[in-house]
Specification:
alpha/beta; 4-stranded antiparallel sheet; 18% strand
C-alpha cells in the first residue's frame, strides 16, 4: 500500500479568482473563507475572488490569501494525507493539514509573517534570482564571493536554485554564475525571502509562534529547513521559526518522502509549480493537482488507487 503526500505551494502561485469555484461548490470551502474573514476582520475572500491584483500581490495579503485557498481546497477534498509538506509559506498549510496548527491561528500568523518579511528590507534593497543550470557548489561559491550578503535560498530541483540577498550582491553573483554557463533570471519579488536579510522578520515572528498553541501532528510533516519529518509540536514550532531566514530544501524533502514510501503527491493550491518541480526531481513520480472544484473527484480516485 502506497503512502500519499499532500503538498502545498508557496507565495508566487496566487492569482485573482483562486478558490472561487471551490467556494461555490463546497460548503466546507465556504466555511474556510468565512473563518479567514472573521480571523482577519476583513473580506479576504473578496480579495481572492475579485482582487484587485495589486492588493493581492502585497506580501501581507498574499500569504493569508494563498493559505486560505489551499485549506479551502483541502476541506473540499475531504481526504487526509499520510505525510505532508509545503514550500515556504505552504508549510503553514501542511501544518493545518496535519492537525498541528488550527486554521484560524495559521491565517493570523501568516498575516504577521508577511508583514514582517516585507518590512525587514526596504523595497529595492534586496533581490532574488532563479539560477537555471549550473552546479550547486559553483553557485554557492559565487554567492560567497559576491559583495554583501547573498546565498542560495531555494534548492528546488535539479538545475533550479534560487539565490537572494542584497540587490548589488545578487547582481554580482548572477554575473559570475552566468559566466560559468548557467542562466540567472531576476525574480519580481518584494523582498529577498529566506536569506539572512530576513533575520529581523524571524526575530519578530518568533514570539507569535511561541504564543500560539501547537499540537503534535497526526502525520509526519517534512519541514523546509531540515528536509526531514517532524512529529512533535516543539519541532513544528522550531521549524516555522527557522524557515524565515534559511533555505527551502525542497528537492531533498521530496527525495526523502520518496525514500520513505510516498507513491502519490497531491498538490493542493493554485498553479502547478510543485508538480513541475517533482517531474524534474523524479520523472516517474505519480502526481495530481487540486486547483479547483473540477479536480476533486479525480484526486479522490487517485488517492484511493494509491492506497490500494
Amino acid at each position: 500500500m502506497g503512502r500519499v503526500a499532500f503538498v502545498f505551494p508557496g507565495q508566487g502561485a496566487q492569482k485573482v479568482g483562486m478558490g472561487r469555484d471551490a467556494w461555490e461548490a463546497s460548503e466546507a470551502a465556504r466555511a474556510v473563507f468565512a473563518e479567514a474573514d472573521a480571523a482577519l476582520g476583513e473580506s479576504l475572500s473578496t480579495l481572492c475572488f475579485e482582487g484587485p491584483e495589486e492588493s493581492l500581490q502585497l506580501t501581507a495579503n498574499t500569504q493569508p490569501a494563498v493559505l486560505t485557498t489551499e485549506i479551502a481546497l483541502l476541506r473540499a477534498l475531504g481526504e487526509s494525507p499520510d505525510v505532508t509538506a509545503g514550500h515556504s509559506l505552504g508549510e503553514y498549510a501542511a501544518n493545518v493539514a496535519a492537525g498541528a496548527l488550527s486554521f484560524t491561528d495559521a491565517v493570523r500568523l501568516v498575516r504577521v509573517r508577511g508583514t514582517y518579511m516585507q518590512e525587514a528590507v526596504p523595497v529595492g534593497a534586496g533581490a532574488m534570482a532563479a539560477i537555471m543550470g549550473g552546479e550547486r557548489a559553483a553557485i554557492e561559491r559565487a554567492c560567497a564571493e559576491a559583495p554583501g550578503r547573498v546565498s542560495a535560498v531555494n534548492y528546488n530541483c535539479p538545475g533550479q536554485i534560487v539565490i537572494a540577498g542584497d540587490a548589488a550582491g545578487v547582481e554580482a553573483a548572477s554575473r559570475a554564475i552566468a559566466a560559468l554557463g548557467a542562466k540567472a533570471i531576476p525574480l519580481k519579488v518584494s523582498a529577498p525571502f529566506h536569506s539572512a536579510l530576513m533575520e529581523p522578520a524571524e526575530a519578530r515572528l518568533a514570539p507569535h509562534l511561541t504564543a500560539t498553541e501547537m499540537r503534535d501532528p497526526a502525520v509526519p510533516i517534512y519541514v523546509n529547513v531540515d528536509a526531514a519529518p517532524v512529529r512533535d509540536a516543539a519541532a513544528v514550532r522550531d521549524a516555522l521559526v527557522r524557515q524565515v531566514s534559511r533555505p527551502v530544501r525542497w528537492q531533498e524533502s521530496v527525495e526523502r518522502m520518496l525514500a520513505d514510501g510516498v507513491t502519490l503527491f497531491v498538490e493542493i493550491g493554485p498553479g502547478r509549480v510543485l508538480s513541475g518541480l517533482l517531474a524534474r526531481i523524479r520523472k516517474d513520480a505519480a502526481k495530481i493537482n487540486v486547483q479547483g472544484a473540477g479536480d476533486l473527484d479525480a484526486a479522490r480516485a487517485a488517492i484511493r488507487a494509491a492506497r490500494g
